[in-house]
Every structure is written in C-alpha cells, then in structure tokens.
Amino acid sequence: MSDRSATGLDRSFEHVPDTDQSFENALAKARAGDRLTVADGVELMTTGTDCDGIDPVRKEQVLEAADRRRAEMVGDDVTFVANLNNNVTTACNTGCLFCNFKNTAHQFESEYEGDHTGFTKTPAESRAVVEDALDTGIYEVTSVSGLHPAFVLNEDHREILESYENPYAEVDYKPPEAYDKDPGTYVEQMRAMSVGGVHLHSMTPEEAYHARRGTDWSYEEVYRELKDAGLDSAPGTAAEILVPEVREVICPGKISTAEWVEGMEGAIAAGLDVTATIMYGHVENAAHRVMHLKVIRDLQDRTDGITEFVPLSFVYQNTPLYERGLVTEGAADAEDELMIAVSRLFLDNIDNIQSSWVKFGNAKSLKLLNCGANDFMGTILSEEITKRAGGGYGEYRSFDDYVEMISAIGRPAVERSTDYRQRRRIAPDDAPHGPMLGPRADGTPMLAGCESDGGEPAPADD
Ligand SMILES: C[S@@+](CC[C@H](N)C(=O)[O-])C[C@H]1O[C@@H](n2cnc3c(N)ncnc32)[C@H](O)[C@@H]1O
Ligand SMILES: Nc1c(NC[C@H](O)[C@H](O)[C@H](O)CO)[nH]c(=O)[nH]c1=O
Ligand SMILES: N[C@@H](Cc1ccc(O)cc1)C(=O)O
Ligand code: SF4
C-alpha cells in the first residue's frame, strides 16, 4: 500500500482522507447493511484513518463484509458476457495524461509524413469486424473511441461545425478530406455496428459530448438519435475520478464531473441502460475514491439506469502520468481489493460489481470475486486501451477459460446479456463451452483451439 493513496500526504489536495468517524463504527454499519456516508466509506477504504497504511486484519473484515453483501444482493452466480471490443479510432486531441490509447489527430492527416501506431476504421470496416464476430456467437459489441476531429453526429452537425469561422480551434473539427481515413459520422458507425441483432454498447459521455460539440443540442436528443441508429446501451467510462481537483491533474481537457453526470442522465432519459466506472490508482487519494462512489450512488438514486459498476485499476507503464513523474506505480493489491469491497458496500443501489480481468489478470480478478464482485466482464476478443498503456493480461478469454476459473472458486458460471436480464447457467462438465445468447450463438466455442494463457495477445477473429 503506498502512502500516496492511503493518505494523500504527498499532494496538496483540498480533499484528504480525514474523518470524525471510527473504523469500528463504519464496519458495524457496513455489516448491518446501513447506508454508508462518505466518512464511513473513507474509514473502510483506508482501514481506518487512525493508522498509516493498510491494516491486514481490518482489511479482511471489510472484504468479508463485502463478500457477504454480494451473496445477499445477487447470490453466488458469476456472470460474464460474450462480447467483442471494436474501437473505431485512436485519433484524439483531448490529451488525458493517463491515456496511451490515443494518438494526436494531426498524425492522421494526409499531409503528415511521419509514422504512427494509430488506426481509424470506416463504417464499412467496423461492420465487417462485427459481422465476423457475430458468427463466433457474440451477444454484444463494445465500442469506445478517440475524439477524431472529423467525427460528427450526422450531416446537420457537420454543417453547423463548418459554419464556425475557425472550426479546428473553436470546436476541434476538421473535414474528413484532411485525413487519410474517414470515420464517417457517429450515426453511420452505429448503423454499421448494429448488425444482425447484436447488442451495441457504445458512446461514452465524452464521445456524446463530441457528438454535440458546437451545438445547443441536449445529451438526451443526441442519445435518442444514436439509439434510433441502433445504439442499445452506453458505457460509463470517461468517469475517471469524478472530483474536479483530480480531473484538473489527470485530464484537464476532458468533460467536467457535472457534464459527465449530465451525459449519463441524458442517455438514461433517452431510454438506454448505462454502466458506470472509476479509474483509480494514480494521483487520487481514498477520499476522492469514496466521493466518486457518492456521485455514482446519487445518480443511481435519481435514475436507476446503471446496470453495473466497473472499477478500472490504472495501468501506468506507458502513460504520460508515469513518464512525467506524476505517479511511480499503480494501485497495490490491497487497494484493488478494498476498491471492489467498498464499491459493493457503498453502492447499495447497484446490483453488479465487475471484476475486470483485463486490468487485474486471472489470479487477482478471481480473488476479487470473493471481495464483493459478482461479474467477470466479457470475452472482448480484442483489446487496445490497456495493452497500449502497458498492461499484459491478454486480449480475450474463452468460455472454457471462464468455466474453469469460476468453477475453481466453487461458484456457478453464468452467461449473461449486457443488461443482465437474460442469464444462462453453464454446466461445467459439459465441455467444450460456447455462447448461447448471441443472435447467431449455438453453443459452439468462440475460440476453438485457443489456449488463453492470460498473457498472449490473440487475433480478433480466431
Ligand atoms: C480510452 S477512453 C475511450 C473513450 C473516450 N475517448 C473516453 O474517454 O470516454 C476509455 C476509458 O479507458 C480508460 N483508460 C484509459 N487509459 C487507461 C489506463 N492507462 N489505465 C486504465 N484505464 C484507462 C479510461 O477510464 C477511459 O475513460
Ligand atoms: N468490455 C469491457 C472492457 N473492455 C476493455 C476496454 O475496451 C478497455 O480496454 C479498458 O477496460 C478501458 O480501460 N473492459 C472492462 O474492464 N470491462 C468491460 O466490460
Ligand atoms: N463494462 C463496462 C466497462 C468498460 C470499461 C472500459 C471500456 O472501454 C468499455 C467498457 C462498460 O461497459 O462501461
Ligand atoms: S481517455 Fe478518451 S478522451 Fe482521453 S485521451 Fe484517451 S481516448 Fe482521448
């Protein structure tokens, strides 16, 4: 456990983990199922602000309380989804300091002479990737992208942006002709990816912001138009830490906390389910993490639209935050465990807490299923964000991998739909296992012959 996260001592933040509550009281409330205050959450997250570092005995008490709460709220099932990641473009000028997924957009211009490692897909290319994956049995496609300057909601949006005197400087817009590859419009990408009955999970609040930049359109109307084009639900990434003083350090170019909340409310008002995330383990302290949970819990009290909460542990190796010396490492194991556990205990109105194998690897993500998490993410088949940041836990998990891992901890493996409303318990002895819920799924293994060792990238169409 690093002092940085336990106490925030080495940074001059207004918010620091310092409360009038005691660890014992907070734990008693957690055990009794009482709604926790931010002070309670901070006591649990730090295993007590009365002592430095993490106390191992108190930590086990918090994890045990969270594991019990998980069993009471959602039972023993461990769910996962047959899904594909299809990200459209890495071009982005937002400049988040924790992100190595993006490439600055000028590198994609036809006039640029240097090399770069980024990519942009046309709508037709996106469709072909999803089409191929549908045959393997996927239920869902998840798509998150950089904010390409040529990306617009639709042709009306393009016209508005082109009417600005200096669109690049004022609204981060350049016409597609300036670039090697045209991503089309968001509506075209949605139409392209929403193929063959697949569930389309896309358009984070940051992307929705880009899809309405320079206009007075509401998030709700933008999400409605995207929904009409095939969007089924929206990922709540771009949340990072929903506390302004942290965003100023790690993502000053990104939408504010208030705007992220407005975007999520717009998506929910448009009739979409959403997920919510936290990206932690960088410059923030335990007080910020719990304040973030409060923002999420309040949003869920108002909307009831959040289907799952996903703690994303910061992957530091190739990021500007690390290269500039603003961080020296990511979260310690104990911090990851407490993040999951306190999420479960604090978020009394969100059923599903995800253990993300792409962030934690197999061993830790399995352990986290005994610390309050009940969902085990998805097969994803392709991964660019974590990999480019320096993560090494691979790009896919097969159904056989899932069943083997989940059975090893004595829990039932359950294939789910994105919204958790459809569930299918998998009989462990009936191998090999494949998806059944996707529009073209028939139980055939998606990744026949692939041994996912958790470290080796695999081709998306394997
Ligand atoms: C890469 S962005 C793509 C979508 C869109 N540009 C946005 O910001 O919402 C998606 C999310 O990936 C996560 N992410 C990016 N870099 C990361 C890193 N180094 N470690 C952990 N998560 C990261 C962040 O939470 C971010 O919001
Ligand atoms: N679909 C989920 C993913 N997908 C991987 C992401 O695209 C990305 O690489 C990374 O997680 C962004 O930080 N990851 C999850 O953690 N959970 C999912 O449900
Ligand atoms: N399942 C979560 C987690 C996620 C995280 C990062 C992503 O890039 C995509 C998804 C979501 O849909 O929001
Ligand atoms: S996190 Fe999203 S908005 Fe920020 S730089 Fe990366 S791709 Fe761009």
From TrEMBL:
Top-level EC class: transferase
Keywords of the record: 4Fe-4S, Iron, Iron-sulfur, Metal-binding, S-adenosyl-L-methionine, Transferase
InterPro entries: Aldolase_TIM, CofH/MnqC-like_C, F420, FO_synthase_su2, rSAM, rSAM_sf
Enzyme nomenclature, EC number: 2.5.1.-
One Gene Ontology term of the molecular function aspect: metal ion binding
Residue span, Radical SAM core domain: 78-351
Region feature (Disordered): 417-462
Protein's UniProt keywords contain Iron-sulfur: yes
Cofactor(s) listed: [4Fe-4S] cluster
Basic and acidic residues biased stretches: 417-432
Protein name, per record: FO synthase subunit 2
Species assigned in the record: Halogeometricum borinquense (strain ATCC 700274 / DSM 11551 / JCM 10706 / KCTC 4070 / PR3)
